[in-house]
Every structure is written in C-alpha cells, then in structure tokens.
Amino acid sequence: MTELFRRSLLRAGAAAGAASLLALPARAQGNYPTRPVTLICPWGAGGGTDATARIIGALLEKDLGQPINVVNRTGGNGVVGHSAIATAQPDGYTIGIITVEIAMLHHAGLTNLTWKDYTPLALVNEDPPGVQVSASSPHKDIKALAEAIKAAPAGKLKASGTGQGGIWHLALVGWLQAMGLQPDHVRWVPSNGAAPAMQDLAAGGVDIVTCSVPEARAMLDAGRARSLAIMAPKRNPQFPEVPTLNEALGINYSTGAWRGIAAPRNLPADMAKTLVAALERTYKSKEFTDFMHARGFGTIWADPEGFAAFMDKSDRAMGEAMRAAGLARA
Amino acid sequence: MDAVLAAFGLVFDPSVMLVILGAAVFGMFVGAMPGLTATMATALLVPVTFFMDPVPSLGAIVTATAMAIFAGDIPAAMLRMPGTPASAAYADESFLMARKGQLDLNLGVNVVFSALGGIVGVVFLVLCAPALAELALNFSSFEYFWLACLGLTCAVFIGTGNPLKGFVALLIGLSVTCIGIDPAAGVPRFTFGNVDLMSGVNFIAVMIGAFAVSELLRGAVALRQEGHVVVPQVGNVFRGVGGVMRRYWLNFIRGSLMGTLIGALPGAGADIAAWVSYAMAKRFSRTPEKFGTGHVEGVVEAGASNNSAVAGAWIPALVFGIPGDSITAIVIGVLYMKGMNPGPTVFTENPQFIYAVFIIFILANIIMVPLGWVAIKSMKQVLRIPRTLLLPLILLFCIVGAFAMTNSSYGILLMLIFGVLGWFMEENGIPVAPMILGLVLGEMLEQNFMTSMIKSDGAWLPFFERPIAGALGIMTLLVWLLMLGRGARAAWRRPAEA
Amino acid sequence: MRVNDAVLGLVLLLLASAMIWLTTYFPAFPGQDYGPALFPRLLATGLIVCALLLMLRGLAARRQGEPWAALASWWSRPGQVVSFLVMPLAVVAYLLFAETLGFIPLAFALLLALFLWFGERPLRALPVAAAATLLMYWFFGEMMRVPLPRGLLNDIL
Q: What's the predicted TM-score (pTM) here?
C-alpha cells in the first residue's frame, strides 16, 4: 500500500492508545502544530477547489508532520464554508481555502463577510475565463463571434457556465460591456457549475460558455467545443493556441477565478509565519506544480501582503462589475 | 490485442491485487455505514492516489465504489438504515422481507444481482461507451426536465395503499428542496438569514432520520413491551437465489439496462436508477399487490439497477470528461493527474490503462460475491447483539453519519427533525419514501424547468421540439393521463370508499 | 400518535399558506417572467389541494366516530414514554454538549446512560460503551477523517 494509507492506518492504530506520544517527528519549528490541522474547503468533492485543497493538504501534511484534514463545508454558493473559516478560532488549527466568491458574496447581499475577515496566507491559483463555443458553431474565431453578438437582437444568444451572478457570469458581463453592449445583451442561463454548462453547449442548449479553459478541456479535447479566446493579459502556456481578447479584438479586459489559503482573522504572527513558509515550500514543490499542470490549473504565488492587496483589488473589481450588471444587492 | 494482454499484466500484479482487496474491504465498511457514501470513500482515496500508479489508483476507486453501493443494502435490510442513498428506494421492501424471515434470501439476492447488474453495466461500458455517451450528450435541460417529471411518477408506485397521502409526502419532499439558494436566480429562500439553511437540506441526513431514527423510536417503545422476537433465519445466503433468478430474470435484465442508461446520463446516478427500477418492477409486475409486503421482485430489479449505474456513470466520464455522478467527477480529476486525459483519445493513447480499468471493474463485481458473503455473515452477528445494546449503538452511528454529511451539527439537527417527522408521518399512514424521492428530484426539476424557460424565452413549444425531449415529454404526458384516467375510473367505481 | 386526517389537513393548509406568504418577499428575477417564487407557489398550491381533500376525508371519518387524535396504549405507561423520549433527548444532549465535551466523553456517557436505561447490566454496559466509542472515533475520526469534536481532549488527541 502507499505511504499515506499505511501512515493513516498506523496513526489510527496509535490513536486508540496514546496518539500524541507517537506523533510523527515535526520539523524544528517551535511547537506549532502539535495536533491535526483542519483545512476547510467551501466546495464539494469532485470540483477544482476540492482537488486543490486536497493536494495542498497532502503536501502540507508531509511538510508540517501533522495530519491536515480537508473538511468540505459546502452549500449556499460558498457562504457556508467561507463563514466556517472566518468564524473558527484563530488558533492555527483551522485554516481554509478561500475563493473568488469571497469578493462577490457580500456584494450580492448573501453575507457580510469580506476578505478583511481573514488572515491571508498565500494565493496559489488563478484561472482566467475563456470563450467557448460548440464545435458546430458557425463562428470560427472570436472576431466573428463578437460581430454576431453585436448583430443579434438583445437576449437572442444564450451563454452559461455557472449560477446567476457567479464569476463566469460576471466575466461575460465584463466582456459585453467592454464591447459597449448592455450587460444582458447575451442572456445568461444559470447552470450548476461549468461541467453541466459545457454539456449543454455540446447538446446545443446554449451558444457560448465562459468558463475557464481547463474546465472546458475535456470537451475541447473531444472535438465537441472550441475555445476562441481567453480574458487574460497573456496566453496560457498550456493552451498556447488560444489568443487573448486584447490580441484578437483589442479589448483590454481580463478577470479570473482565484484560490488562496487563509486563516481566521487575528491569527498569531508566529503561526502565520510557520504556515506561510510551509505553503511556500508546498507551492514550489514538484508535486504541486505537476498536479496543477496536469489539471491545467494556473499557478500564481502571492505572500500574505501580496494576497491581501490582490483580494482588495479583486473585491473592488467584482463590486463594480456586479453593480454594472444589476446583480449587486448590498 | 497487445494492449489487452498488457492490461492483464498490469492488473494481475500482486501489489495491485492487494490494493484492490484493501479497497474492497474499505468500500464494504463505508457502504454499510449510514452517512458514509461512496462519494466520500472516493474523495478520501484521492490523496492516496497522488502517490500511486494509474492502474492501482483507478482500481481502488472502482472497487471501493462498487462494493459500497452493494454494502448499503445490508443495513437497509437488517436495520432499515440504508447505508447509501442508492439503497433508499427498496429499504422498506428489504426490511419487510427480513421481518418475514427472509433476510438471508434478501441479502443473497442483493449480493448476486448487484454483482450481475454491475457486470452488465461494465459490458455496456466496454462495448458501446462511445454510442451511449453520444446519446447522453444530447441531453440538455429540456430532456432533463422531462426525465425529472417521469421520475416523479415513481412516487405513485412506491407509496403504499393511499395515493393521496403518498402525494402529500412527495410534495413535502419537493417543498423542502426549496430551502436554500434558488438554483436559477441565486437568491436565498426560506433561510431566515441562517447560514446553514442557505446550504439547503442535506437529503442524506434526512434519509438517516426518516428511515433509521424513526425506526429507533418505534424500537425503543417496543423494547419494554415484549421480548423482541428474533426472526429465525435459514442460514444459507445463497439458497433460493437460483429460483429467484429463474423467476425474475426479466426484472434483472430490465433493471441492469435501465441502470446503465440512467447512470450514463450526467446528473442522474445510482440513487435515481434504483427508484426508477423499483417503480418499473411494480408497474410491470404480475403481482403488484405484493409490493410493500416484503416481495423480492422489486429488490432484484433495483438492486441490479443501482450497481449497473455505477459502471454506466463512467461512460460519459471516459468519453467526454463529463461526470456521470459525483464519484466520476472525482475520477476525472484522477484521470487528468495520471495523464489519461478523458476523451476519445483515452482509448487510443493509453489503451492498456483503460482495458485494465475494465478488467478491474469485472473483477470487482466477481469478488463482490465472496466478500459480500463474508460481510453478510459478519454483519448478521449484529442482529445477535441484544437490542438493549443495539438501539443506542445505532443511534450513535446515525449521529456520526449525519454529522459527516455536513461536517457540522446542522446535519444532526436535520436528522433529528426528520426522524421525529418521519415517525409521525408513518404513524398517520403517510409513507416516507416519496418524501425522499421528492428531495432527490426537487432541484433537478426546478433547475431544468427554469433554465429551459430562460432558453426558450418563456415559450412552451421548445420543450417538445428536440427529438428526445419531444419523445420523453409525450411519454410523460401519456403516462400521467393514463394514471389520471385509471384513478378517476377507480374513484367512479367505489365512490364511497375514501 | 394518530390524528384525524382533518387535523393533518389543517396543519398542511397553514404550512402551505405560510409558504405562499413568504414567497411574496422573494425578489423578482430580472428579465424573467418566472422567478424564484414560482416553484414554491406551485408546490404550496398542490399541498393546499391535498390538504382540502384530507380535511374532507377526515370530517367524513369523524362523522363515523373517529376521534380527533388517538394515542397508542403505551403512552399511558411512563416507562415506555421515557424510552420513546430518551432517543431524541440523547440527540439533543449531543447537539448541546458536543463542542464543549468532545465526542469521546459525550458518546461514552450517552451510550452508557441509554444502555442502563434500557435495562442492560452495568458490567456489560461499561466495556461495550467504552469499546464502541473508541472504535467509532478511530474509524470515523481517524480513518474517514470526519472532524468529530475534540472538546475536553483537545490537547491530548
């Protein structure tokens, strides 16, 4: 059996007796952590956030010498999990993976939480949205699609990718506005995530899906869909043939979904330091890079200060986009 | 052919076999515990697979999930506590069989037909994955809307004698799914500002409450009433299974086909397959009146169906990278990590890996029979535990299981509320099974209705324009008309009877 | 506890009406004729129809002498009533004290109390409660990584 499985068996056996005495030797970093750490994930098993949380958890566990338990607290468009992280004790034994939704939920009036309710630790991932059409779509490139959108009456074309007011909906709205169109010129069809939206695209139910390229990848590989552009400053090295909006249309619009690790507010500085150092080693490890590349996920590193500034910027951008789209309620 | 031989070499390696065996035992445990689902088992295996080769990692997932779906039947029959949601559809029927002294027959039928159903599913996966995936790819929200409507029809067949009360239960279940964030507009409904309610009502926690806790409440009262009668059992699990096979082979075939098909549809998995198959069994049975009294026919069909759905779910996952259920959603991630990108190329680029997965699938379903026999034998010891000890132990399992569903006390609270509600409903002749069905189908129904309406700009015609949607829609309406007609005729014949 | 169908119908009627009343506070879905209120209203309407039918039926049964509510015979025997209540009460106790006490002490105490109430001998109840608690903690908490509350044993585990 594998190392991890054997270790968990061993640990389990030991727990019945006196677990703490047999705890695996920790790195010489003071005493913290002396017991298992919980890593809360606001999204369910099978999604990209869960996968990212689990690889980080597995690697942190190796690094810190204490079990990292990934705990899914799902539902409410991410409110449940984000609240659970923010309201946990800042004792260093509960951390979580927070996502772009924390910059959106409070604008939508679903929670009062903002990024300021967390101790930022590290930004690890950002994925820009792409513009995908069905393989049978008449629009061969992004220029043709843009012309078709402009020519079509409002509401005729349909797009999907996530729920109403979700990140990919905002991406569509931002792009439409950058082209000088109304935010509802292309009608949004809410979906339960990117995978069902891509299926609907292939089934002919919608015309455009604005999810990230890695989420669309299986359908792209299967030849059922085409990615026409990405809304990012530069091309994705994993998908070098997909141009940016700026290159193809001269529209300098970019956005993205991001994921980072954070703790409840007021985490003691020495614990934060331990965690950030471990996260940096994790981020730089070959296992992490290989994993993220295999899934096609973008990697980006920001330390606590950088992450805080990044979230501040993201928060303001999302607020602006949501107000413009009439999706803000608070 | 070289690839097939290579695949055999990959599978029949001692360390791989050991992993498969370990995963099988793990899957049995997880499936038999209420609240621990096959999806959870898979999610837990993921970090383990980071450090494994592709074949053992996929083998572990395949084996664990196949076992878990069967193992859920064991506590359902013994304690009326479905171990996984896929067993909920026929939990009552199995429990009634056990009460009649047919526990062994029931479990024997469950393990044999689970294994056979699983194999049928794999055969379809091997032979016609691309064609079936192509079919599944034609399903948009219009088709899913009609499918959910057809699913609701099942409620008529699973309720007991009183259709009105069955309908009430179904409506309660559907209403409960409205709690939480609305699937179309994204606004909170009936949440009263509570964060937990925003996540909606977890249907597995409800299922644990409505089936197991309500049974515990009845058990606690009966404990002091009279010495609980332990029903004598024949002892041989496989006795009588051959006879069932000869008698109900048609149910087995229909269940396996239906399960594979439903499993292959993204968004509908083993649990919906079991409901549909159970309803089909009753609809086409020559003795529908025996259903709900501990009759084996529905167990054969639904037991085969949910296991074939496990393999069916891999069809769209392998061919298009679209998850057929929550388990394959995780599997797709593992495939990418192992460099076996799903898509048509997966069959050409690394065929030996895919063949190895198929072989493991068949192998898992074959070893299910002996391992299942051991599991049944050892779990039957549970029934020997005096009920003074057993009832509190089951309660603790329920608490921990419900907690594991939400990872918070909210799950336990839901279990408690629906446990008491389920007890009260059954006291008053309102069946709980249609309520669970309503919970399973509610969001699918509303989401697909709303998105279809958005796509069609409010028009009804597009619900029938696409070929599959049109056929499904007309079929649904016909079934409903027929049932209404029959109900009206029955009411006409005996107007006095309420 | 069996109640007359008319009572059931009345309760359902009130619940369904409350549902419809609450939907009036839901925001509209911009640009859409059908909003978040549609589905709950449809269901509530269905419930109201069922409730009215139940009430008709219940009143008919009432005329034939069925009582408004009937308790099973065991409700008059205190021991059985406590047995019935002790199950949900144990769950409530778990909900209230799990965070502070932690899974292991609380599960042990609850199991022991229930065993003894149901008439199990202490000599058998004690070891079974202890073994079951530890086994469950091991399987769920360690193997399956369910975050069972640690409570009092926070620093030891």
A: 0.88
